[in-house]
Design goal:
Layout: E1 5-11, H1 16-35, E2 41-49, H2 53-60, E3 65-68, H3 85-108, E4 112-115, H4 122-130, E5 135-139, H5 146-152, E6 157-160, E7 177-179, H6 193-199, E8 211-215, H7 222-230, H8 232-236, E9 240-244, H9 255-264, H10 268-271, E10 274-277, H11 284-290, E11 293-296, H12 300-309, E12 312-315, H13 325-335, E13 339-341, H14 349-360, H15 363-373, H16 381-394
Parallel strand pairs: 1-2, 1-4, 2-3, 4-5, 5-6, 6-7, 8-9, 8-11, 9-10, 11-12, 12-13
């Protein structure tokens, strides 16, 4: 470690659920450094996929970003199932990514590597281990992902969001684990409902209506988008909607276009209750501040933020994912009475409408669900993880 600097290499990505905890921890590290009155300062670099969501989010956060080749190993029920064309192609990309990461790690000379998972983390973690840089990896979900199973083997410390994830690791690695919870971005707490009404051009005359926030991540959730489209006029009879529909891969029909066409057919009074966007950025705090009910996938980051804010939710878990982790995330919220679950196979317009109408008809219960969501929150997660990163960096 340099005399007054801790050089911290961040890696992780593929989805916002891997990137958001990294950025939340970076923010907390910066805050801790400021509170130390200049005794030390952090220097960050982010290694990720050249075209992944982490590039945009890291650069928006003001971090120095470098891209490397990445490969994704897909889970299979038997060893022969791993021998797919996609896996074989990615097996060749991984060594390239490791060599590129070796170059970047050697040039940056980090005191510590902080990894938050996703297949993109594997090459930098391997490079760090080869160069004897201490690694701390963090798992966001109840189920330890395949990339983190690999990264954990090369990590000195393994941070978990849930106690139950310890049993997912080999016995020899469990002594390296500690539980922090899943960090959340401070920006989500900085929203203002009145500002949201003005930002999204909602009619103040509708202020007695509840607000739904519908989200499906960066690429959107087509099953959710189609269900909303099917019953959009009926939903808007009893609620305002902020709908983040995502952007689908190039060449595919864009849900935004279909939803925009459906919105254009609405009567003016209903049209003004509907705000459609592909992405939500720095306005996310305002979105949450105005929202009474969230309809979303059940990624770890989303579930954690909803819990931290005390919001009621309807989760539509994505399946299959590694170990069906989204269903397990959603079930934790359902178990304390904070959420309802609609299976992906059952997510149709009429089912969504029925669920939303039931929830909105009992506003006191909706508020109680939000309070129960708060039981799952770990407000010190970012702080505890930041301190662990700093401690490991100083130990080099």
């Amino acid at each position: 470690m340099s005399k007054n600097k801790i050089r911290i290499l961040i890696t992780g990505g593929g989805t916002g659920g891997h990137v958001s905890p990294a950025l939340a921890t970076v923010q907390e590290i910066k805050r801790l450094a400021e509170n130390q009155a200049g005794e030390w300062s952090p220097v960050f670099r982010y290694i990720g996929s050249k075209h992944g969501v982490e590039k945009r989010l890291a650069e928006e956060a003001g971090l120095d970003f470098v891209g490397v080749q990445t490969g994704k190993l897909r889970r299979a029920t038997n060893p022969l199932g791993m021998l797919t064309i996609k896996n074989l192609k990615d097996l060749f990309r991984i060594p390239v990514g490791v060599f590129q990461s070796l170059w970047h790690v050697a040039r940056f000379k980090p005191d510590v590597i902080f990894s938050t998972g996703g297949f993109v983390c594997v090459p930098p973690v391997l490079a760090g281990w080869l160069l004897r840089v201490p690694v701390l990896t963090h798992e966001q979900t109840v189920t330890v992902g395949l990339a983190n199973r690999i990264a954990a083997r090369f990590a000195r410390r393994i941070a978990l969001s849930f106690e139950g994830a310890v049993s997912e690791l080999p016995a020899r690695l469990r002594t390296r684990t500690f539980v922090t919870g899943n960090p959340v971005r401070q920006i989500i707490f900085q929203g203002d409902a009145a500002r949201a009404i003005e930002r999204f051009n909602f009619n103040p005359a509708d202020n007695d209506l509840p607000t739904l926030y519908v989200t499906g991540g960066a690429q959107g959730a087509r099953v959710i988008n189609q269900a909303v489209e099917a019953v959009l006029p009926e939903l808007l009879q009893s609620a305002r909607i902020i709908h983040q529909c995502g952007q689908q891969p190039a060449g595919e029909t864009q849900d935004y276009d279909r939803l925009q066409a459906a919105a254009d057919k609405l009567p003016p009074e209903l049209r003004q209750r509907y705000f459609l966007t592909r992405f939500v950025g720095e306005e996310i705090g305002d979105v949450f501040a105005l929202s009474n009910l969230v309809i979303s996938r059940a990624g770890a980051g989303t579930v954690t933020e909803i819990a931290a804010l005390g919001k009621a939710a309807v989760f539509v878990p994505l399946v299959p994912t590694g170990g069906d982790e989204q269903t397990r995330n959603a079930q934790r919220a359902e178990a304390v009475g904070a959420a309802r679950i609609i299976k992906q196979s059952e997510m149709k317009g009429p089912r969504l409408l029925e669920e939303v109408r039931q929830l909105l008809a009992d506003r006191p219960n909706l508020k109680e669900m939000g309070q129960k969501a708060g039981l799952l929150a770990r407000p010190k997660a970012a702080h505890d993880l930041a301190e662990a990163v700093i401690e490991l960096g100083r130990s080099k």
